[in-house]
Amino acid sequence: MVGAGMVGASVAYHAAKAGAAVTLVDAGKPGSGVSVDSFAWIAANITSGPASELRAAAADEYHRLEAELPGLPVTWSGSLSWRTGESAPETVRGQQIVDAATAVKLEPTLRQPPDWAVWAPDEGGVDPVGVIERMIAGAREYGAQVHPEVPVTAVGRDSDGRIVEVDTASGPLSATTVVLAAGAATAALAAPLGVQVPVEPSPATLFRFRAPAGLIRTVVNTQDFDIRQVAPDRIIAAADSQERTLDAIKSTFRGGEHVELLSARIGARPMPADGEPIIGPVAEAPGLYLAVMHAAVTLAPAVGRMIAAELVNGTTEPALAGSRLDRF
């Protein structure tokens, strides 16, 4: 297993739990890559495309994982979304349209509650590094070997073209199957094998702020930002501009004038060419399995369980059928 982000940690945990001999390798510490700068919203708000079924099951999959791994750092706050100047959209399962009076009950510090908002009570957010660490601890309990800060330099084949090892800065590690869950680095590791993985780094800025306690209760999604409270005195926001984000916070929430910027970091999200996950075995490189996607926080529990089933039990998961590499 190459990559100890959300997806790699989930696959390692689920595969080890299913009885596989798992070795997890990462160039850094678990969760130190793009995961640490993720907004980490469990969001099921995309209702079309190959990943829509996986997204719809996200809350259930997280509840299952919470039962298996007590102490998983998940906050079920619900999400509140609106767009000023637009009419209310059609809702999907798990959503409802609420009026201004209800919106201000959900978010009491709103200065001007919107005429309508989409309330999704089953959504929430996670501490991504904490979730990764808990899944890796669970994988270790089932016998997984974990090698942090060991960069993978290449994936090796035998004379028949089958994948048999990964080469690392500390020497080769043998394998019967190599799962590439290395985010945007997956393409570079696969290319020498003649496998083209259409994924590019997509920059996204995460702002961290000092804020008054209780400023925000839910995950708030507007045209200005995605924003949520992650500690009594901390909020995070996914947005484009520091100045515009601060202005929007001040104009949206009473007490927003006391918010102070702590940091702004740009993460390189792995973004497949069509925006959909790339998951599955690679015909031209037997023994190679790909697991790269955007929205890894939302999808990780589900895809980890399904990938483990395909690897350990030899099943073919119908929910992954639209995510195969050969669609390109």
Structure description:
Keywords: Oxidoreductase. One of its GO terms (cellular component) is cytoplasm. Residues 2-309 form the FAD dependent oxidoreductase domain. This is Glycine/D-amino acid oxidase-like deaminating enzyme. By secondary structure, the chain is α+β, with helices and mostly antiparallel strands. 25% of the residues lie in helices and 28% in strands. The protein folds into two domains: 6-72 and 126-198 and 273-327, 3-Layer(bba) Sandwich (FAD/NAD(P)-binding domain); 79-121 and 202-270, 2-Layer Sandwich (D-Amino Acid Oxidase, Chain A, domain 2). The strands form five sheets. It has an eight-stranded mixed beta sheet with strand order 5-6-4-14-15-16-13-17. The chain has a three-stranded antiparallel beta sheet with strand order 2-7-3. A hairpin with a 4-residue loop joins strand 14 (219-221) and strand 15 (226-231). The protein is elongated, with a radius of gyration of 21 Å.
